[in-house]
Amino acid sequence: MTTSPLFEKRARGALMALGLAAALGSTVLAGYAPAAYAQQMTDVGTPRAETLIVDMLNARVGNPTNMNMYQQGVAMSHGFHQVALSQLYDIDTAKGTQIPGLAAEMPEALNDEYTQFRVKLREGLAWSDGQPFTADDVVFTAEMIRDTPALAYSAAFTDAIASVTKVDDYTVEIETTRPTPRLAIVLGSVIYGNAFHVVPKHIWENEDPATFTNFPPVTISAYKYRDHDPNGTWFLWEKREDWQNTEVGQMIGEPKPQYMLFRSYGTEERRVLAMAANDIDILTDISPESLDILRNQNDKVRAWFTDFPYANLDDPCERGIHFNTSIAPYDDAKTRWALALAINAQRASIATFSGMMRASPLAIPPTTVLMDTYHQPMAQWLTEFTLEDGYQPFDPDYAIKLGEQLRAEGVEGIPEDPEQLRELLGVGWWKHDPEQATKLLTEAGFTNNGGQWMKPDGTPFTINILAPADFEVQSQRLAFAVANEWTQFGIPTQVQQMQAGAFFTAENTGAYEVGSYWGSSCAITPDLFVRMEAWHQDYVRENGMPASHNQGRYVDAELSALIDELRAIPADDEQIVPLGTDILKELVEGLPVIEMFGTSKFVPVNETYWTNYPSADNYYEGPWWWWSNFKFIAARLEPAAAE
Known about the structure:
This protein is of the alpha+beta class. It has 23 helices and 23 strands. The strands form eight sheets. A five-stranded mixed sheet has the order 18-17-19-12-20. Strands 1-10-9-8 form a four-stranded mixed sheet. It has a four-stranded antiparallel sheet with strand order 4-5-7-6. α1 (5-18) crosses α10 (288-297).
């Protein structure tokens, strides 16, 4: 394989800084592929050829013996969420449709107002302790959530669901508080998962759900808890003897891996070393430089695409800089717009992921489907859009300028046609205009004292950006890139890296001012209900109180009125796209988040021990190893020795 000069240069610099070059020795970037590592047993005592080893998305778990998914800040992406639990409804991302999980079929509306539904449950399922799964578990879970206000999800659930009642052992009827034509989305997974997790009544009924640790957990899907590291660096799950009594067993058949080992090796260089040595089968996020190294070191490693851009660009969440809009000075749209125009997005893209990202000025990711539905049709509106003073902030030539720079630096495969460039790198982004940013800050009451911006109250304007530590590398790097831009503009900015539990707790409770987050900027189909609905002002909570949605505490009456309209119509209504367009326009004008780039997922796999991973040329699913539907991907994997 060949390595572009830009990637080789950046890989050498990044890896030398990390110490990875020394660890790999003289083989770095030399094209050397080591022989397969013939480890017979894993270091946790399982046969390597029977163990699928998966990189943990959120790195080390601080409290590994708390698996109560309803408590604030509890980590779940260490296999618990992906292969041990199940949702009423899950998602087939290749087809773009929901599928029944614990439910036997999609919900049946019982009235024209979409407020009453019948839900049939899958029969023949059992919990991992052998007890049958029935309607009693679903009803108990609903009542537990409703009756426990201390649970963060309680308010959102109670706001949407009026009652869940048992009809028979495998049927429940659900009444909603308002017209809810998308009940399967409200109570099922579309992106990552859903907060509604059915729990076993016979285990939880004698516990306080606000304090119960749920450890060791009784599970419902094809894998059960086996062991874990007391320091939270690995979790081992074992295939159930009665895998036939799970939704995976009924829908797909017997999963081939006997064990699932979810493991955190820590920093990126350690994770890369582990995959190079065949100690990891599936990685979550890494940088493009690390991917380049891996592909040179191990010919069994592959990305989504076999050439540029390598990464999957259709991740349904985009990355940007989020604000707690209830806290000054971020409660003023002029301040937020000034900060956006102080960013050189082209420079930030290069600094973050070597330019291998697609820009998005809208509050939805620039996936192929959404680009066709929203970004491209709205490009003319974006070009003509003006701020209050008549200034037009949009730059439609962002992709052309970035493409020219990438070609100049030796990157192969960059098209020259302007429209092809916009398809690859985005329809455009906001101008880098320090002069206009200065004007807006001045109008908002800021002053500039010898190059240092001062707040309206006369104190220095400094920014602290919360960012992930050792996970979600794109958001982590983007925080540093934006911090550099704002510091150059005269606003000293630092990045505070945080482990997953603290990072998301800060967002949910409003204990942040600025953060490199992404949760509210997600969509997967032209129906934007899934995450757009979460911008409703009804979800706003005081700082210090957990917010299940709208963690930015953004209040916009016009936006909420549009969301009310969206709530009331089904997903196939002809007004879906026009309403979605109006919602996106409202979010552009208020700019509660500086949306920046779609997520480029460099999430490689190693085919030494397992094969039949999804890829661009084997697209039966997307590479979402941390989603609830990973259980269905894992069940389709084949042992390499069987080939």
